[in-house]
Design brief:
Two copies of one chain form a homodimer. With about 400 residues, chain A is α/β, with parallel strands linked by helices. Chain A has two domains: about 240 residues, Alkaline Phosphatase, subunit A (3-Layer(aba) Sandwich), CATH 3.40.720; about 140 residues, Alpha-Beta Plaits (2-Layer Sandwich), CATH 3.30.70. Chain A is built from 14 helices and 13 strands. In chain A, strand 5 and strand 6 form a beta hairpin. The longest helix of chain A has 21 residues. Chain A is globular. At the A-B interface, helix 4, helix 5 and helix 13 of A face helix 15 of B.
Chain lengths: ~400, ~400
Amino acid sequence: MKIELIERLSQQSSHKTLLCVLDGLGGLPGPAGLTALEAAATPNLDKLASVGSQGRTLPVGYGITPGSGPGHLALFGYDPLEYEIGRGALEATGIDFVLGPDDVVARGNFCDISGNGVVTDRRAGRQSTDITADLCRLLSQIKLSDIEIFVLPVREQRFVLILRGPNLSALVSETDPQIEGVSPSVCRPLTGSVEAERTASLIRRWVNAAHDLLEERDQGNGILLRGWSTRPNLPSFPKIWKTRAAACAVYPMYRGVASLAGMDVINAGASLSEQIQEISAQWDSFDFFFLHYKYADSAGEDGNFEAKVQAITDFDTYVPELLKLNPEVVVVTGDHSTPAVMSGHSWHSVPTLIAGRHVRPDQQVNFGERAAISGELGQFPANELLPIAFAHADKLAKFGA
Amino acid sequence: MKIELIERLSQQSSHKTLLCVLDGLGGLPGPAGLTALEAAATPNLDKLASVGSQGRTLPVGYGITPGSGPGHLALFGYDPLEYEIGRGALEATGIDFVLGPDDVVARGNFCDISGNGVVTDRRAGRQSTDITADLCRLLSQIKLSDIEIFVLPVREQRFVLILRGPNLSALVSETDPQIEGVSPSVCRPLTGSVEAERTASLIRRWVNAAHDLLEERDQGNGILLRGWSTRPNLPSFPKIWKTRAAACAVYPMYRGVASLAGMDVINAGASLSEQIQEISAQWDSFDFFFLHYKYADSAGEDGNFEAKVQAITDFDTYVPELLKLNPEVVVVTGDHSTPAVMSGHSWHSVPTLIAGRHVRPDQQVNFGERAAISGELGQFPANELLPIAFAHADKLAKFGA
């Protein structure tokens, strides 16, 4: 659905919509021939399925394996091929850094450089997060004319570098050569614009200063930069949908993507129970809640089928508590599939469930990949899920007379 | 899927993909209420279906009956509405003529023209291919300044005319009036460009010279030209997909379409057995094999339901031999439906099957139109089939972080 059309048709509504994202929900059969979702004990989701409609969402497109960024953009109603979040921007977002409109950001690695200037280890032996944090503090001393600079640790050898100031451009080349045994690349402008020339020159100065500060070290004596990007220009979710939207996620990256879309982030502890308490406490302040649950994906990424089954089983036990909040529309889906057998994201469609007033029921009484094949919603692009959900919440006016 | 996205995400892989196209595979129920595919004895395809995913492909769009050109372009991943092969170009390709970048080509008919210059039979009584070949040799004598000219027989009264040289244009009108009882039309430029003016003038001179050479004849004393076109500008399949692609087809037109897409054509005899031998011999040289099997379509075109059943039954007996090659991904589909009851192509979707690593199974144990309705792949555009198949072959990197 085109966002312009949504903006034209959307209207305020007192009905509340709860979007539950079980990260990496979809899967492939495990040892007993069932997927993790099919194998999990999900009496509460099954009950929802029996009164709701099921279907299968395609996050990006046929055969395309989505990253978490595009997977969530699609669930928020954005076409992920139209709106991309750059890698640097996603990394900054993942540590709760709020990118400004003038920021240019890269992902950085500390690396090892030999006496003759060659990269010998692109990851500096995966040095500890503590060491990286110390080195980021050291590099924060570097000053460049009128530019504000942030050097922030992420995890292990990874950090982000943010340049803030007018007339900067992300159209500059990466310094990470992607292989070892060669020197770091020199940052160059990728276009002939004054901004790109200037930014590349600033980055070269910063890299030289960084290497001067690090040169006495045996390990982590170099830095590599890639994924230059700016804050993505996402149209505002609350504005498009005329809604008050809240995001509740334990992991910063998901809060970050929601925040880039203009949702309010509501903080919570690390457990699902605490998340639900927080949503409950804020129930009257918002019309739309995005609840992110990470552990189905984590288990899938680890190739741990049983842990994925358990993560889904665990989620199911909290469904009654969520339903007590009495949302008019409940959506249960994932941002992509993460089959344990593949130990990673995959292109497979994602089982998806909508329950609420005016749902047209199908004949499925269990929530799962096979059941979803014959579900009422069919197979459809994930960025169409929100229009369907919000239609059930009376949030879309009639098109045409 | 946009080709730009595929080019960005595609990567080399050691996994091999085998695309089996049973031309005109889809159908409508015959005398016993089953389609030809459902009625055929297909124990091997059924076994593949029971471990694979089924679905239904739409070659061009809802309600659109595809020609063989667009049908195959879609299977090769091109949007057939974006990339068209002109009729002249398709006809030339169908006789193994390799079109050059400077070529302008038309389909020709020999026709009968009366004393007063009126077309009395647009097909010259469907004169024999031998006569047409003789006349093509005769017309090859015509010379036009710096233009190279090819006049090549196709079948019965049909031939192709190719003009090769700089500054030619296909934006010229047809000389075939499409009805009898009127004179052949005079070729005119369709735009004001110098190239179109010049090309139309050259064609008028060629037509006049041809009529002079043919005027003594009782039959086949005129020619009609239509479908002016140039070589289609298809992005290279091997480049888009970073793959070594081979096409094995008995009929020249299918080799031709594959060749226009940049695939290598591997020759084989006229039988499926010989085709499989050839693919086997070349197995290590390619990552992707397109195997074309014509006879399901031929039988459908002839309105011969039993022959179509037999053609599919015959194909099935060779499936074990194909599987012995051990491709990681096997696709079985058609380029369009050819219901025997319609004696021609139709707009109906095409039953489609993917087997391979990481396929999400459905509950179908037979390959057929009805089973495909409840298949895991759903109904989807045929040009999305290859991205799905290649995802299974590890040929598509993750999109976004």
